[in-house]
Specification:
Layout (H helix, E strand, L loop, with lengths): L23 H8 L3 H11 L5 E2 L5 E2 L2 H15 L4 H5 L3 H11 L8 H11 L2 H15 L1 H21 L5 H20 L10 E5 L8 H12 L3 E4 L6 H11 L3 E5 L6 H14 L4 E5 L1 H5 L1 H4 L4 E2 L3 H8 L1
Parallel strand pairs: 3-4, 3-5, 5-6, 6-7
Antiparallel strand pairs: 1-2
Length: about 300
């Protein structure tokens, strides 16, 4: 995963269709249930009756997705598919409601998706808190939030979630990462001093915030300047704060000539810092940027570069 960010942040709106229309591969990604298994459940137990296109391709609705997520929750709790198939929608919903109240993390993926679909802040916050208590933020981000955001990417592609739902979940994640950062002490001195920012017109900061947490947790002094920072303000801050490393994320689409020129100018205006950057645009233009900026692909590569 490039720079710990999901594809949902860079999917263009032009790719989104008017109605939610999942193919079986989409359902496989969103639910974690193999397509082969879904077909067996349909044929043997009649759990779903998908629509079909003129060319006989299965398509699924939001209701089908919600039902499969609930079925998956119950199945993970040890209830056989044959029994679930005979329960009826209301009984499935009632049993799932009970499961959602518990504090175990073994069904966290389904809970996160259900919280998104139903705009259930309490379910999302409780699930995320349970994961962090069990694993810590670093492992939760890598093992749960990144796959979850990848699933959101599929949902954007098929127009299954609205902008409001995406913003709802993104801001809840952002709030949690910020709250975890606030619990950490501010390093007074360290070998490296790292300034973090997003370039102008880029607002996708969840990955960068996670890096802020990761670096502070390692006792490294950081300066977080946040979203859409004008270039002149960046240069002024570098002169004032004198960091040893400047770290940025580039997810919003940019012209190659612009991004190459940006880092060449920054190398001239801030000659005494190392330039680190990650994100889809850095990866896309990596050949042209070679020698101008060090690409950060994930948290492990960032820490390795600093060490």
């Amino acid at each position: 995963m490039i720079f710990e960010q999901s594809i949902y942040t860079v999917v263009s709106k032009e790719l989104r269709r008017v109605m939610a229309d999942y193919k079986i591969k989409d359902i496989e990604i969103l639910t974690g249930i193999k397509a082969h298994t879904i077909r067996i459940w349909e044929k043997r137990y009649g759990i779903l009756i998908p629509d079909r296109t003129d060319t006989k391709i299965r398509t699924y609705s939001d209701a089908d997705l919600s039902l499969l997520l609930n079925v998956c929750l119950l199945n993970k709790k040890g209830i056989k598919i044959s029994k679930i198939a005979n329960m009826g929608t209301d009984a499935i919903h009632d049993m799932v409601s009970e499961i959602r109240l518990n504090t175990t993390v073994d069904n966290a993926e389904e809970k996160l998706i259900l919280a998104l679909l139903e705009l259930d802040e309490l379910l999302f916050r409780n699930t995320l808190a349970d994961l962090i208590n069990e694993k810590g933020l670093e492992a939760t981000f890598a093992q749960n939030l990144i796959p979850f955001l990848d699933r959101i990417g599929v949902m954007w592609l098929v127009n299954s979630i609205s902008a409001a739902q995406e913003h709802f979940i993104s801001n809840l994640i952002r709030q949690k990462v910020v709250s975890e950062i606030d619990k950490l002490p501010i390093a007074q001195e360290s070998k490296e001093k790292i300034l973090l920012f997003l370039p102008e017109h880029d607002w996708h900061e969840i990955g960068l915030l996670f890096y802020q947490y990761l670096l502070r947790n390692k006792g490294i002094k950081t300066y977080y300047l946040g979203q859409s920072l004008p270039y002149d303000s960046l240069v002024d801050c570098i002169k004032q704060l004198q960091p040893t490393i400047v770290l940025s994320s580039w997810l919003t689409a940019v012209d190659e000539h612009f991004i190459v020129g940006y880092f060449k100018n920054l190398a001239i205006d801030a000659p005494n810092v190392r330039l680190f950057a990650g994100g889809a645009q850095i990866h896309t233009h990596s050949a042209a940027l070679q020698g101008s900026v060090i690409e950060v692909k994930n948290s492990e590569s960032l820490l390795a570069l600093i060490d």
